[in-house]
Amino acid sequence: MRTAPWPARSGALLLRDPLPEDADQLVALRNNPVVNRFMLRTHVDPDAYAQEWASIPDSDTDFSCIAELNGRLAGLGFLDITDGWGQPGMPRGTQGIIGYMLQPDLAGRGLGTDLARGLLTAAFDALQLRRVTASCNADNVASARVLEKNGMRREQHGIEDSWHADLGWVDGYQYAMLAREWTAARTVQ
Ligand SMILES: CC(C)(COP(=O)(O)OP(=O)(O)OC[C@H]1O[C@@H](n2cnc3c(N)ncnc32)[C@H](O)[C@@H]1OP(=O)(O)O)[C@@H](O)C(=O)NCCC(=O)NCCS
């Protein structure tokens, strides 16, 4: 049975639903050019983005969260429930897509790995999803490492499949994990 994933702890982070008072900080983080370097959307409209986040707690498919460290907004976690590809009769809403971003001064301490692990825990344990995917630019080494450290499998390497404003056509990776792989990985630990 599906249960609400937040609040939850992952390492030093508290993952929780967004609150109205987070709006300014989450928009500032999302529009920080350092953080956006490898994001597809490199700028968001502040009001529309704040509105998107305000509606998340009422959504049946968007379980994105605030990552808090000692009371500070440390990052954003993205978790959307989606459908796979399939013929009529395919069970709906069994897949998830995750993503994450951290305040730049907090990078390199393992927090990105904690954040992604918290999203995977939410996806598999609370939301009972069957498969989770995450995509990143091949040049985004820290992001690829975060996914690999959490046991995700690289299943696609798209050669020059993505346009980067500074770098031109660059490679993209897609990672995935199945619920049974998540369970098996935890049994081994
Ligand atoms: C991606 C991001 C969340 C990583 O967060 P983080 O807290 O720095 O990640 P961690 O410290 O948990 O792990 C990073 C890993 O990448 C490695 N790494 C980082 N930069 C690297 C580089 N240039 N070359 C090789 N390894 C690198 C680190 O050594 C570490 O691996 P290790 O533990 O095996 O040593 C953070 O950099 C971020 O928010 N980036 C901007 C937003 C973004 O790009 N999000 C992902 C979009 S797909």
UniProtKB/TrEMBL annotation:
Key words, A-Z: Transferase
Protein's UniProt keywords contain Transferase: yes
Molecular function, one GO term: acyltransferase activity, transferring groups other than amino-acyl groups
Superkingdom field: Bacteria
Boundaries of every N-acetyltransferase domain copy: 13-180
InterPro entries assigned to the protein according to its UniProt record, in alphabetical order: Acyl_CoA_acyltransferase, GNAT_dom, N-acetyltransferase
Pfam families, sorted: Acetyltransf_3
Protein name: Acetyltransferase
Source species of the chain: Curtobacterium oceanosedimentum
Lineage: Bacteria, Bacillati, Actinomycetota, Actinomycetes, Micrococcales
